[in-house]
Amino acid sequence: MQAQLEKLWITDRERLLSCIRRHLALVGFYADRDAGLEGKTAASKAASKAASK
Questions:
Q1: Residue 45 in contact with residue 38, Cβ under 8 Å?
Q2: 53 three-state secondary structure
Q3: In terms of Cα–Cα distance, which of 22, 17, 43, 19 is closest to 31?
Q4: Using an 8 Å Cβ cutoff, are 47 and 40 in contact?
Q5: Potential cystine with 45: which of 4, 6, 25, 35 (Cβ 3.0-4.6 Å)?
Q6: What pLDDT score was predicted for residue 43?
């Protein structure tokens, strides 16, 4: 029982990390795209967001 629980937990953590990486990559893609459409670099866009807070 304990071994099965550990195996399932490890599988769950691996899938969670995979999902996080995929979605962060997607967010980054759209941030870069939007910055490019606005004529800004991603770094300057991030800096302007930080300055507005």
A1: yes
A2: coil
A3: 43
A4: no
A5: 35
A6: 60
Q: Give CA–CA dist 32/53, Å, rounded.
A: 20
Question: Tokens 């991603």 belong to which residue?
Answer: 42
The whole-model pTM stands at 0.53
The CA distances from residue 41 to 11, 21, 51, 53, in Å, are 38, 22, 15, 19
Q: What local confidence, expressed as pLDDT, does residue 33 receive?
A: 93
Q: Which distant-in-sequence residues (6+ apart) come within 8 Å of 51 by Cβ?
A: none
Residue 40 pLDDT level (bands cut at 50, 70, 90): confident
Q: How far apart are CA 9 and CA 15, in angstroms?
A: 10
Q: State the Cα–Cα distance between residues 14 and 6, nearest whole angstrom.
A: 12
